[in-house]
Amino acid sequence: MPRRSKWMHLVAGVVAGVTLGVFLKLCLRTSSRTSIEACPEAAKLYVAPDPLEIIGLKSDETIYNSNRTLVFVGVMTAEQYLTTRARAVFETWAQDLPGRIAFFSSEVSRAPGLPLIPLRNVDDSYPPQKKSFLMLLYMYEHYGDRFEWFMRADDDVYVRGDKLGEFLRSVDSRKPQFIGQAGRGTNSERDALALDYNENFCMGGPGVLISRETLRRVAPHVKYCLKHLYTTHEDVELGRCVAKFAGVSCTWSYDVS
Prior knowledge:
single chain; alpha/beta; two-stranded antiparallel sheet; 10 strands; transmembrane helix; signal-anchor
């Protein structure tokens, strides 16, 4: 066997041995009685399912040939609420959506039976700026061309699917749209929120609607926005990011009436 081939086999063997050793060190622990304990469930290797499979979307379904692609709803939740709030949402109003839904939680979250997306390098700390922005990035990267509208929702909100569908079909998703309950904070808060006199934001509690064009403009810049936060208010910072990169603010009610 040539010398070079021997060295290649030797290097490959060393790499494999080191990898196996690290895995065994992390996933096997020796107790005080020298018995070996298996690593905890959360530490086991996790292979994320296909993004389309998570939400039950077929690969050939598009906004042009399906009546279940009007809106994608991303529900921000936490591990402690997966069996309560998230489960209640999924078993009630989620069934009547003119689209699909998924729950976004921390990296270690698991919930069999729910369309759950554990976001990498995200925990359940509050305020959830990182969770919110990376949820939008995930939406864009995996579903950006498959839905007309995207909704950011909390796990304690209730949505009327029929009313939502009726409204969204009346608005052009090809244009930058940022729709929700507009707010500017109180007079005493305005300076702390770093808002100009003509700026506002969509308050997160009631839910926020984002057109596919707005998502297309904003999503590539979410990491920039995360690095340039002015406040700890997730909805304010989302509004600031949308205004900067999509050029629109939260729509006042009289603009869509």
